Amino acid sequence: MITLALSKGRIFDETLPLLKAAGIEVLDDPDKTRKLILATNQPDVRVVLVRATDVPTYVQYGGADLGITGLDTLLEHGMEWGGAASSTGLYQPLDLQIAKCRISVAVREGFDYAAAVRQGSRLTVATKYVAIAREFFAAKGVHVDLIKLYGSMELAPLTGLADAIVDLVSTGNTLKANHLVEVEHIMDISSRLVVNQAALKLKREPIRRIIDAFAGVVGQK
Ligand code: PRT
Ligand code: MG
């Protein structure tokens, strides 16, 4: 049995066409069932639904053989920057080019971020992405106090909780609606296929077949 970990919502929705092109059809609609294990048309392939941030954990510890997760989530989980294999035991063979966005620094309209950086001010930054933010500001030589949040980052600069946020931006509509402006583009994000390295050795044949099918679909073969 091959187990693929996915999160509900945008990753599941954008993965379905890739699975279909690879000949795998999920037999249940996650929005209509309470099941967390979904069968597919391939008797030896199943999908498990987990929280987006739990996908790397499932794959790392073998609760799933493969998973699909954002680069943001992988980097926060401890995947080395740009690394293929890493200490986490996760092998990252493919950029699936789905759920694309960018990770950026944003501040309240009217906050002079450039001046604050120039003057060497200490900035308070609220984010779900503490590791990415720490690495980014350290490389830039900016002193920051990081505040970990789990959601609604946009609220932090508006309430005085923080000077800036580090968050994902796609259309920019959420920032605009909250009178925030993007002042740094940290990196582009897309979702990645990750594979448990031990599973790849033990179930090489069927896992390779899935990786190759995805690779064919995203044109990276
Ligand atoms: O929702 P939950 O807490 O369960 O987990 P999650 O938020 O991690 O999952 P989900 O499904 O929201 O996101 C999964 C992955 O999708 C992320 O890890 C990213 O890799 C990717 N992705 C792509 C995005 C976006 N685009 C995105 N726009 N994830 C979140 N957003 C949010 C962003 O945080 C901000 O609040 O959408 C808002 C901005 O969108 P725009 O279009 O207004 O700019
Ligand atoms: Mg979300």
Explained architecture:
The chain has about 220 residues and is α/β, with parallel strands linked by helices. It is about 35% helix and about 30% strand. It contains nine helices and eleven strands. The protein has helices at about 10-20, 55-60, 70-75, 115-120, 130-140, 155-160, 175, 195-200, 205-220, and strands at about 1-5, 35-40, 45-50, 65-70, 90-95, 100-110, 125, 145-150, 165-170, 180-190, 190-195. The strands form two sheets. Strands 2-3-1-4-11-5 form a six-stranded mixed beta sheet. Strand 2 (about 35-40) and strand 3 (about 45-50) form a beta hairpin. The chain is elongated, with a radius of gyration of 19 Å. The mean pLDDT is about 95. Phosphoribosyl ATP (PRT) binds near residues 10, 53 and 172.
* Relative strand content: 25-35%
**Total beta strand runs:** 11
Number of helices: 9
CATH topology (fold) name of the largest domain: D-Maltodextrin-Binding Protein, domain 2
List keywords for this structure.
alpha/beta; six-stranded mixed sheet; 221 residues; binds phosphoribosyl ATP; binds magnesium ion; single chain; D-Maltodextrin-Binding Protein, domain 2; elongated; 2 domains; five-stranded mixed sheet
Could you give the topology of this structure?
Blueprint: E1 2-6, H1 10-21, E2 37-39, E3 45-49, H2 55-60, E4 66-70, H3 71-77, E5 90-95, E6 101-108, H4 113-118, E7 123-127, H5 130-140, E8 144-148, H6 155-159, E9 164-169, H7 173-177, E10 180-189, E11 191-196, H8 197-202, H9 204-218
Parallel strand pairs: 1-3, 1-4, 7-8, 7-9
Antiparallel strand pairs: 2-3, 4-11, 5-11, 6-9, 6-10
The structure holds phosphoribosyl ATP (PRT) and magnesium ion.
Phosphoribosyl ATP is lined by residues 7, 9-11, 51-53, 70, 72-73, 99, 101, 167-174, 189, 191.
